[in-house]
Design goal:
CATH class: Mainly Beta
CATH topology: Lipocalin
Shape: elongated
Number of helices: 3
Number of domains: 1
Strand content: over 45%
CATH architecture: Beta Barrel
Distance between the termini: 23 Å
Structural class: mainly beta
Strand order of the largest sheet: 1-2-3-5-6-7-8-9
Helix content: 10-25%
Number of strands: 9
CATH superfamily: Lipid/polyisoprenoid-binding, YceI-like
Length: about 180
């Protein structure tokens, strides 16, 4: 199955309850993370092909990132991330799904409007209940969604070997940026 077909099928299944409501989506969203500690090489990566769908009637949101899409400045770090930590051949995707609480599409304007998100986050085959604040704003006909939150690798059964544990932060800061277009 091609990457595009896989992505389309996964998003369709994740959002099947959305029905015929107005939807906004992207296949070019961005997720960046940082797990650096002082005095060591930066541990950071960015993914620029994140897919997402938002139902503007009820605030249901689904976000999908293929783990192998994260790019590091250091190739060896990227290889270790995929093979040793994330085991991306076994756990190929990270999925966020749930709803934006008290979502009101009409309340969103050019200024950022804060909302609470509640749902689940699946990473490394582990599904956790997940809540965070996110911001939404309008830009022309698009919706801009941004969020910043911290995650702990151990919450998702990601083991960090003791030999490198001091080189990686206990908390991984994640930044999400999605420019959602009407679909």
């Amino acid at each position: 199955m091609s990457y595009r077909n896989y992505l389309a099928a996964t998003l369709f299944l994740l959002c099947s309850s959305i029905g015929m409501a107005q939807k906004f989506g992207t296949k070019a969203g961005s997720i960046a993370f940082e797990a650096s500690v002082p005095s060591f090489e930066p541990v950071a990566a960015k993914h620029s092909s994140v897919s997402a769908v938002l139902n503007s009637d009820n605030g249901q949101l689904a976000v999908l990132a293929l783990v192998t899409g994260f790019r590091f400045d250091i190739a060896l770090m990227e290889e270790h991330f995929n093979e040793n930590y994330m085991e991306s051949e076994v756990y190929p995707k990270a999925v966020l799904k749930g709803e934006i609480k008290d979502f009101d599409f009409k309340a969103i304007n050019a200024g950022k409007t804060a909302f609470q998100f509640s749902g689940s986050l699946e990473i490394h085959g582990v599904v956790q209940a997940f809540e965070t604040e996110l911001q939404l704003s309008k830009a022309d006909q698009d919706l801009l969604l941004s969020a910043r939150f911290a995650l702990k690798p151990e919450d998702f059964n990601i083991e960090i070997p003791k030999i490198v544990a001091k080189k990686i932060a206990d908390e991984v800061w994640v930044d999400v940026q999605l420019q959602l277009k009407s679909i």
